[in-house]
Amino acid sequence: MNTPVGRPRAQARIDLAGLRNNVEVLRSAAPTAQLMAVVKADAYGHGLVECSRAAVAAGASYLGVALPEEAIELRANGIDASILAWLLQTDSPAQWIELVERDVDVSVSSLKGLECARIAAAESGTSAKIHLKLDTGMGRGGSGMAEWSRLLDEVSRAVSENSIEVVGMWTHLAFADQPAHPVVEHQLELFAEGVAQAKRQGITPLLRHVANSAATFRTPSAHFDLVRPGISIYGLSPGAAVGTAEELGLQPVMQLSGAVTQVKPVAAGQGVSYGHDYVTQRDTTIALVPLGYADGIPMGATNVGPVVIAGERQVVAGRVCMDQIMFDVGDADVHEGDEVVFFGSGAAGEPTADDWAQVTGTIGYEIVTRIGARVPRVFADGSA
Ligand SMILES: Cc1ncc(COP(=O)(O)O)c(C=O)c1O
User: Fold this and answer.
1) Is the CB of 228 inside a 6 Å radius of any atom of ligand 1?
2) Domains of the chain by range and CATH?
3) Measured from the CA of 172, which atom of ligand 1 is nearest?
């Protein structure tokens, strides 16, 4: 006898056709620039290797990652597109060697980083391809304006020794999601100044890059030679002032779903979950769904997280637990095994990850990126 296979406890369905659509939308927003698909953090929770392949198939000429191990995983899976890795440790030249040996471009923000790139070039018998990062106002990674000239001097020396090749020069915007903010313009001016200074010192990078998703859509003067979008590749809005996903022509790529695992009648006045933050107002039915904060459901969804169960909107009742959440489904026709859609494209009336972000007081980036490793990603290539 065949045992019936139930609905999965939880799954994140990843629509690769949607992802390719989004890459195309972004490419047409910046038609004169190349596109680097930012696939760090497991492609914002969507699956590093599969999403990278789909992005390259849709015309991305670069992949951007933060960590060395992300770049190594891409190469180990046979992905030979250009890759930039930008969060390397300068106390670990071994990381730099591993990347240069695998033909991964590395970001350099300091003399120490440059030294690591030189060591990597010498050890691997090739030149290191670097992208010089300038901090024009993000106050995060990158050379300070004050150290830039000194860094450029040392870079010139390394270039003349053939140990490094300056492929790129780049910076990151602090207010790209507020396109009219004066800091955007100011950062672009400082970037232009930094590039001009490099030119005067004989360094002309092929690829100047600045624009994340928001600037790709809203700040054409930041497009330069390559744009570097992340969140919009996955179909989410980079910010309310930029536009909703729908307005931008983006298709949310991840659909998070689960299954009802218990349905039971409870009396009026029953407290639900830790601390009884929710109390039933009438005799009702509670449906239990086995996903919780260990799966990335935010605690902030307590009493506000929207889902669709058996075709009807419901809202989380009571505190989110580690592995479970509850819904007061009243008289709705809900059964064990019914599908629960947390978020998706919105096309069938289900909430989107951006809706989840709004009701839980965060950003769509965090909603999708935090979906836990124990939620299997299931890749689909169409609307089926
Ligand atoms: C350096 C850098 N560039 C580009 C991006 C992509 O930004 P977004 O996801 O807003 O498009 C990120 C993401 O945080 C980043 O850290």
Assistant:
1) yes
2) 16-236 (3.20.20.10), 254-380 (2.40.37.10)
3) 1
